[in-house]
Design a protein that fits this description.
With 343 residues, the protein is mainly beta. The protein contains four helices and 17 strands. The protein starts with a helix and ends with a strand.
Length: 343
């Protein structure tokens, strides 16, 4: 037998055989409070070899899977219930079917359901029909700082007595009205930008004091306070949801060009059966080259010709409100802009 072929046959058994329990090393848990990205919860019987085949359609991609998860000390020692990080390729080729004649009941492929974590979910902004009621307003910072960040002490005027309770967590936010038109339909809403987490420390005569426990963006005099908006950082991924007819409203920070890992909003939400964890494609209109020429040449181009839109990236839904959703751009092959289609 060819030596190379013999090595390829023996290697999987060397790498993924079951070692004595006494030799097993303890694997660190996947920490959604610190890590962001796709993950998979190991099931009984899983090996990196098999997971590589299921995720990447190649058993030989297992070294990359191992490298991505440095808490795994040995590739053949992975434990059910532990979370490992994975990378979803933009386009996954379909696995080759096995002949039905050799398929046994226990050999039937098990559905692999990846997850996604975004460790900063509590600071994700959103768009609603109306602004969240304000519980109070920042009067000033203790030392007079105009830009307020972590550990600064705030003086806050409550919206009503006893609405801000000492010891409880709240969030600093601002709003911006959105009024855009997509495909002839008017979209109106209120964007909420979350700037910081705070904890009320004391209630005084007509005001309360609070400390900024975590700052995402500098807070300012006049910024408002709302109840702490807690959301789970772990999402179940749905890679092929039903198609939607949506559009990018804007990025969270209103940049002109939107790229990888930037937060943005789309004009469809819970009312349109959009759910966190769904993954969609972003597409751009593919305009004819005749559009660049004068009117006499444009006549050659028929309006009946509709070029297929260009796929410019993928996004994942992080949070939904009634009329809109907050999304993260996962990948982009060209710049994404407000108004681009989401399908």
């Amino acid at each position: 037998m060819n030596i190379k072929k013999l090595v390829l046959i023996i290697l999987p058994f060397i790498l993924f055989g079951h070692p004595p329990m006494a030799a097993a090393e303890k694997s660190e848990a996947f920490n959604p409070d610190q890590d962001t990205g796709f993950y998979y919860t190991i099931q009984k019987g899983d090996t990196l070899w098999d997971l590589s085949e299921k995720f990447y359609n190649s058993q030989w991609d297992w070294p990359g899977l191992w490298e991505m998860n440095k808490q795994i000390k040995n590739p053949h020692w992975i434990y059910p219930g532990k979370k490992i990080q994975i990378f979803l390729k933009p386009v996954a080729s379909a696995p080759k079917p096995r002949p039905e004649a050799v398929l046994k009941t226990e050999d039937q492929p098990r559905k692999i359901t990846p997850g996604f974590v975004y460790s900063k979910m509590s600071r994700v902004g959103f768009i609603k029909k109306k602004a969240v009621p304000s519980l109070g307003t920042i009067l000033r910072e203790q030392d007079g700082n105009l830009m307020m960040s972590t550990s600064d002490i705030l003086y806050i005027k409550p919206g009503s007595p006893d609405v801000l309770v000492p010891g409880r967590r709240y969030q600093v936010f601002t709003t911006k009205r959105i009024n855009e038109q997509f495909k002839g339909e008017q979209f109106k809403g209120v964007q909420h930008l979350i700037k910081a987490d705070i904890q009320v420390t004391a209630s005084k005569n007509g005001y309360v004091t609070a400390v900024i426990t975590d700052s995402f963006q500098d807070a300012n005099v006049g910024d408002r306070i709302m109840a702490y908006y807690e959301r789970t950082p772990e999402l179940t991924v749905q890679q092929d949801p039903d198609p939607i007819d949506a559009a990018i409203i804007c990025s969270q920070d209103h940049r002109v060009m939107i790229n990888d890992f930037v937060l943005a909003f789309i004009n469809k939400g819970a009312d349109h059966d959009i759910h966190p964890g769904q993954i969609y494609s972003v597409r751009q209109e593919n305009r004819s080259a005749f559009d660049a020429f004068d009117e006499s040449i444009k006549a050659i181009d028929s309006n009946d010709i509709q070029l297929e839109p260009l796929t410019s990236g993928r996004l994942i839904v992080l949070h939904t409100e009634d009329i809109a959703s907050t999304v993260m751009i996962l990948s982009s092959v060209r710049d994404i802009h407000p108004g681009d289609m989401v399908r």
